[in-house]
Amino acid sequence: MNKEDQLIIGFRDLYNKMVLLNKDKMEDSLKGYMPSEIHCIEYIEKNADSNVTKLAESFYMTRSAISKITKKLMEKGLVESYQKPDNKKEIYFRLTKQGKVIYEIHEDLHKEFQERDKTVFEQVTKEQFESMLRFVENYNRHLDAEIKKYAQIGSRNQSE
Hints:
The protein is mainly alpha-helical. Helices cover about 75% and strands about 10% of the residues. It has helices at about 5-30, 35-45, 50-60, 65-75, 95-120, 125-160; strands spanning about 80-85, 85-95. Helix 2 crosses helix 5 and helix 3 (about 50-60) crosses helix 4. The chain is globular and about 55 Å long.
């Protein structure tokens, strides 16, 4: 197995182990909410003037799928929509009081998981962090370019 395969498998294993260790606590603390809903809540809280387009781009989902999620969040009383006085066309989202409670529960869980894993991160040098972050940034840029090409091919195929 080459180093690239080892790295990808390593990332996948890390992710799967994190999901396994975090899943039960997340599900118990956030009963009744889908992961996609929680991620939308998190994005809306952390990004001012969130709208369907921004959410769709961030999650690599269709605007239609995001519209369904935000509609559910509004029905659950977690999100409300608003418009800016100078732009009556665009609809934005913000968390309600209840949505902020769910956001805080999620954030507290993340802090708990970070605390659990802190010993590993404390052993990483500044140079190692910088090297890993550079790799992640480079890989992300590459995948962004591939996604852009993929989207262009997809839109060409739909117009044929």
